[in-house]
Amino acid sequence: MTDVIIVGGGLAGLFNAILLNRAGLQVTVIEKKAYPFHRVCGEYISNEVLPFLASLDIDPFELGASRINRLKVTASSGASFSQQLDLGGFGISRYTLDNYLYKKALAEGVTFMLNTRVEDLRYTQAHFEVQIPGEILIAMLVIGSFGKHSNLDQKLKRPFFFKRSPYLAVKFHLKIDFPDDLIQLNNYKDGYCGISKVDGGRHCMCYMAHRDDLRKYGTLPELEANVIRKNPYLDEIFKSARFLLDKPEVINEISFKKKSPVDNHILMSGDTAGMIAPLCGNGMTMAIHSAKILSEKVIEHYHRCKFTPACRTGLEMDYTESWNHYFAQRLWAGRQLQRLMGNDLMTSAMLKLLGKLPVLSNYLISKTHGKPFS
User: Fold this and answer.
1) Which domain, by its residues, includes 239?
2) 3-state helix, strand, coil in the chain (%, to 5)
3) Is residue 182 part of a domain?
4) If you placed Cys at 268, which of 144, 151, 181, 298 could pair as Cys (CB 3.0 to 4.6 Å)?
């Protein structure tokens, strides 16, 4: 038996593992792939995480992260809006960052089970049973960090899983002549695409599109030609960029529906607990912050009363309250902006309005960003 099993080795899972292991808990991370590997992600992180990373002796700029301090939003009509980012952020690939955190956690004593898929999770009133191929593992606590969309969501009968999502997301790495300090969000019919510099002299381009458009045009290149590249800014990027990955990373059924931070007594972290709209960026930021919040709550309750049933109930309530305090409004704001910016005409009108009212643009940006934390 171990103290904590973390299902999924993304950002939230890795930060939870590092923090809980440092507090003296026995931690096992189960990840279905082996590091390093790519993930579908915009690969932009708000600078609000820098004090926290510094407290863990993690410097993303030593890993080659780019510094980003400008935002540009474009529409298929050719309209655009630009603004300095007060707080700013940085770009770093998941391939680099996740692998660095994995090596750090491994060196500090976290146990990893890689290339291992979790088939089922059960809570038995006293502990958890985690089923993997040919074996059942026992843990006092389970943290769910298995990402945006997983078969485990179906196993756990999470309500959002059964409400079909029309969105897919695709990520590329590029070599392109593009400003190092800019994150650009480009709108088109039923979707949008972000591009910004990451480490290694590369740029990340990640787009979201509607499943019906892919069905209509049949392939990703045809979808890009008939929908995405109707935005002239994106068309120029596709024309001039050198695509670095053998094939793009793709994920289907991305859901922005409301999720629960606790489900079947499993404590959810990162995208598994709630996913912010890509238009707002900051999914990576929220994953990191959610891990900090959850780990602090776990450590507090563990030292107070271990994981007795009464203690477990208090932990679940405490974490849910904290999650909602920090993220509920942010997720709501992201969903509203997504609705506003998913339409060509509405986007053009919104960009013109923002150009005339910088106070409004500052307000909207603030609603999708948090404050620095340590």
Assistant:
1) 2-367
2) 45, 25, 30
3) yes
4) 144
Please, what is the Cα angle at 149 between 285 and 124, to 5 degrees? 100
SS3 280: helix
Whose CA is closest to 251, among 38, 83, 57, 79? Answer: 38
Task: Express each pLDDT in 161-194 by its tens digit.
Answer: 777 778 899 999 999 999 999 999 998 988 889 9
Per DSSP, helices labelled H in the chain are 11-22, 50-55, 94-107, 151-155, 211-217, 220-226, 232-240, 283-305, 309-323, 329-341, 344-356, 358-367
Q: How many domains does the chain have?
A: 1
DSSP 18-50: HHHHHTT--EEEE-SS-SS---S---EEEGGGH
374 found inside a domain: no
CA distance 161 to 283: 19
Residues 6+ apart with CB under 8 A from 190: 209, 210, 212, 213, 227, 342
pLDDT tens digits, one per residue of 105-146: 999 999 999 999 999 999 987 899 999 999 999 999 999 999
**Cα-based distances in Å from 327 to 158, 165, 267:** 19, 21, 15
* Domain containing residue 135: CATH number: 3.50.50.60
